[in-house]
Design brief:
- Helix 4 crosses helix 5.
- The chain is an alpha/beta fold.
- Helices cover 31% and strands 23% of the residues.
- The chain is globular.
- A hairpin with a 5-residue loop joins strand 4 and strand 5.
- The protein has one domain: Maf protein, CATH 3.90.950.10.
- The protein has a six-stranded mixed β-sheet.
- The structure holds inosinic acid (IMP).
- The site of inosinic acid has 17 residues, from strand 3.
Length: 193
């Protein structure tokens, strides 16, 4: 079945395509949309609503995700992509996080992924996945994207960026949210719809 995704982020598209391998993932960039909600769920809904009108009778989906650090009162949170400023580069966001975590003992953090869907009947659904871990003192690894070099998931001694993609994609916040998505869309996949 076809699944329209409201993103242009090639990293997200690759991960979603790997996790939902039995769906035909089609990217539709929600141009000019302001992600100004206070929650991941709110931003995911803003993005999916922006593309749903273009694809009546189809499944549409948007992911909004980010890193929440306990010692920073949940920051960078919904501002993860813009932590060091609008249009900030990944290396600038990561450098700011390292700076803000210097000397901090409690390094607990979690990645959060909210996924909003509009089904072929126009009904909205929202699911969430989380992955607990901790913030490393320095970056390591070259896989993945964003804050991956700084995030060590619980049960691992290495960062997301040091894990093979298939391992990250089996335990990540996105994998967990997409497993709930799968439960919603599985009747469609089975019927070939
Ligand atoms: P969004 O595109 O508004 O959802 O912003 C997501 C931002 O959160 C990204 O730009 C990354 O900085 C961060 N992020 C979300 N998911 C991940 C992940 O799986 N690994 C690393 N960083 C992530």
């Amino acid at each position: 079945m076809k699944l329209y995704i409201a993103t242009h982020n090639a990293h997200k598209i690759r991960e979603i395509s790997q996790i939902l391998a039995d769906c035909e993932i089609i990217s539709d960039d929600p141009q000019g949309v302001e992600e100004n909600a206070a929650t991941f769920e709110g931003n995911a809904l803003i993005k999916v609503r922006a593309i749903a009108a273009n694809h009546p009778g189809e499944w549409c989906m948007a992911d909004d995700s980010g890193l929440c650090v306990d010692a920073l009162e949940g920051e960078p949170g919904v501002r993860s992509a813009r932590y060091a400023g609008d249009n900030a580069l990944t290396k600038e966001n990561n450098a700011l996080l390292i700076r803000n975590m210097q000397g901090v003992v409690d390094r607990a953090a979690r990645f959060v992924c909210a996924v909003a869907l509009v089904d072929p009947a126009g009904k909205e659904h929202v699911v969430r996945g989380e992955c607990e871990g901790r913030i490393a003192s320095s970056p390591s690894g070259t896989e993945g994207f964003g804050y991956d070099p700084l995030f060590i998931p619980d049960g691992c001694e290495v960062s997301f960026a040091e894990l093979p993609a298939e391992v990250k994609n089996s335990i990540s916040h996105r994998a967990r949210a997409l497993s709930s998505v799968r439960e919603l869309i599985v009747p469609q996949v089975n019927s070939g719809g």
